[in-house]
Write a structure and sequence with these properties.
The complex is a heterodimer of chains A (about 150) and B (about 425).
Chain A lengths: L10 H4 L4 H5 L28 H5 L6 E8 L12 E5 L9 E6 L2 E10 L2 E5 L8 E2 L7 E10 L6
Antiparallel strand pairs in A: 1-2, 2-7, 3-4, 3-7, 4-5, 5-6
Chain B lengths: L4 E6 L2 H8 L9 E4 L6 E4 L1 H5 L8 H9 L4 E4 L2 H15 L5 E6 L2 E5 L8 H16 L3 E6 L2 H13 L6 E3 L3 H9 L11 H9 L5 H6 L2 H7 L2 H10 L16 E12 L2 H21 L2 E12 L10 E12 L2 H15 L6 E13 L13 H14 L7 H7 L25 E4 L2
Parallel strand pairs in B: 2-4, 7-8
Antiparallel strand pairs in B: 1-6, 1-7, 2-3, 5-6, 9-12, 10-11, 10-12
Helix pairs in contact in B: 4-5, 12-13, 14-15
The chains are: A mainly beta (about 150), B alpha+beta (about 425).
């Protein structure tokens, strides 16, 4: 970056460009406005553009995605067709949305602990909560950390 | 200098990968098939228990699959490569020195960890990997790599150990060697096992009780080193002992930290060539190549990065040129500038005998095909599996497409193939 050359752009030269080279021409983003007067000490620290995947994925090793089918969680803002970002490194705790494996399929519910009993709560009045019992084959697969939802079907 | 190694290996790795995304397969017999759905290359414990053999031709078990007595999957190396990557990355949080040995095995150098409670540390590693990735693993911990191998094998076999065995006490080491058949010792091939048995050397304990001179006389230098390793003297480099048939890995730490793409590529290309040579030595070819790069996790001032990329090549190969070509594509996909890289590696999997290759593209110089094929490969390297992949594949002569009737989705690498989570209850 520091030794980026000034390049005269003419059509002949453009043809010789390859994309790798263009990568080196990224414009740095300065942390402060360039204004006359005091130079800002922050100008020494260039910042990268926000990387959404870093923001959505705290722990890449344990993070997976699944696609939602159904509407039993609609009041918790989880809709049919949404993508869930799931972190397996987090433990299920009261009030967290979880993906669990129940009756042979993955299902998304809100995990609740009431008086030492575990429940899986839907977020849709048409469905009933499920109490988790010993004999049930229920395992929490991971905790939902993000819901990727498109406001309109594009 | 005291040495200490852990060998972590994934239990029935390929079957376990399938189970992460379909837990209903837990406790059921699962097999994974070689490319073109030819024969069995991986079995869950339940499949072993009902007598399915390694290498069993698929047509012999098709009936069981159709009657739901057995669950078969075509090999999905894109998925396995990504899951392997997750396991290795998780392991690299526990020690600065991780040596990936094959797609499902990894040595952790625990050099100065004698002051920690090894047993609970090993359990912590096992618990974390399984919680984070869903893959069950076993750990053997011992003063040398060969002993760690011994410990790992026993950890898997013994119900009491339950997947973790620490061998640091001389008495325990001796008992473990006694319980290890000579043919199960790391690096002892079938020929040597036979020879040793003829000399009344039936267990690893018999082996270390033989004199070093005798071993030197009758075996290679690797035999001598194994002998020393089993006696507790650490002296084996990873690539001195060929990894299991299912994968060959060449990986080294760089002499100095590297940051430029060209330097890392130079190293990686040489590892790819090494893999190719190992393949040629055993007269086999590989269909899948994985490249990984890594910074030094314990260099406090360095930003950390580890990544790997798996590419399924169009035709199994053992040519330097081809392997380097695909390794380069993989490296380009994962290389990021401005990091201090400490290590890179190349792993080849889906290994088939030389004479069993499906179809030999490179002897039939058909440039059109070749070019369109390269295009497909380039799109395939795109992490997010753009839908272009399918279009391009369809544009190709169908004879390219291997049979994989039982393939699971690429759950973790293609946005179009995510697992479905239901909210219908």
């Amino acid at each position: 970056m520091s030794n980026a050359k000034v390049i005269s752009i003419s059509s002949q030269i453009l043809e010789l460009f390859d994309f790798d080279f263009l990568d080196h021409l990224k414009v740095p983003i300065y942390a402060s406005y360039i204004s006359a007067g005091f130079p800002s000490p922050a100008d020494d620290y260039l910042e990268d553009r926000i990387d959404l995947s870093k923001y959505l994925v705290q722990n890449p090793t344990s993070t997976f995605m699944m696609r939602v089918k159904g509407n039993s969680m609609q009041d918790a803002n989880i809709h049919d067709g949404d993508i869930l970002v799931i972190d397996r490194s987090l433990k299920a705790a009261d009030g967290l949305p979880v993906v669990c494996f129940l009756d042979g399929e993955f299902t998304v519910k809100t995990f609740r602990k009431v008086n030492g009993k575990a429940f899986l709560y839907p977020a849709n009045p048409a469905y009933k909560p499920i109490e988790v019992t010993e004999e049930m084959d229920m395992r929490v697969w991971g905790v939902v950390v993000w819901v990727l939802h498109k406001p309109v079907k594009l | 200098m005291t040495s200490l190694f852990a060998l972590c290996d994934c239990n029935n790795f390929y079957a376990s990968c399938e189970r992460v995304f379909d837990p209903s397969l837990n406790g059921k017999p699962v097999v994974v098939l070689s490319n073109n759905d030819g024969c069995v290359i991986a079995r869950s414990n339940e499949a072993k228990a009902i007598g399915i053999e390694m290498g069993e031709p698929f047509f012999k078990i098709r009936n069981m699959v159709e009657h739901q007595q057995l669950h078969a999957f075509s090999s999905n190396y894109v998925l396995y490569g990504d899951m392997s990557d997750r396991v290795m990355q998780t392991l690299s949080l526990f020690t600065p020195n991780v040596e990936v040995y094959s797609i499902d095995e990894c040595f952790l150098d625990l050099g100065d960890f004698y002051d920690v409670d090894l047993f609970s540390y090993a359990w912590e590693i096992k618990r974390t990997v399984t919680q984070w990735t869903g893959i069950p693993v076993s750990l053997g911990v011992a003063p040398t790599k060969a002993l760690a191998k011994v410990a790992n094998k026993l950890a898997k076999k013994s119900a009491k150990a339950n997947g973790v065995l620490v061998l640091t006490e001389p008495y325990h080491i001796e008992r473990a060697l006694e319980a290890t058949k000579i043919e199960d010792v790391w690096g002892i091939g079938r020929q040597y096992a036979k020879f040793l048995k003829n000399h009344k050397i039936d267990t690893a304990l018999d082996f270390i009780n033989a004199s070093e001179n005798w071993i030197r006389k009758h075996m290679t230098v690797v035999g001598v080193r194994l002998h020393r390793e089993l006696r507790g003297e650490s002296c084996l480099e990873l690539d001195e002992v060929a990894p299991p048939k299912k994968g060959i890995c060449t990986s080294r730490s760089f002499g100095k930290k590297l940051t430029s793409f060209d330097d890392v590529l130079e190293a990686t290309a040489s590892y790819a060539a090494k893999c190719a040579r190992k393949l040629r030595n055993q007269r086999s070819c590989a269909k899948v190549v994985t490249v990984f790069v890594q910074t030094n996790p314990f260099s406090e001032n360095d930003r950390q990065y580890y990544n790997s990329k798996t590419i399924c090549m169009p035709v199994a190969t053992n040519s330097d040129i081809e392997l380097i070509h695909y390794a380069t594509i993989a490296l380009k996909a994962i290389f990021k500038p401005h990091y201090w890289y400490k290590k890179s590696g190349v792993i080849v999997t889906e290994i088939v005998p030389e004479h069993q290759i499906q179809f030999d593209l490179l002897d039939t110089v058909d440039r059109d095909k070749h070019t369109s094929l390269m295009k497909v490969m380039d799109t395939l390297t795109d992490r997010f599996g753009r839908s272009k992949v399918q279009v391009a594949v369809q544009g190709i002569d169908k004879s390219w497409i291997l049979k994989s009737d039982y393939k699971s989705p690429c759950y973790t690498t293609r946005i179009t193939e995510l697992p479905i989570v239901y909210s219908q209850k």
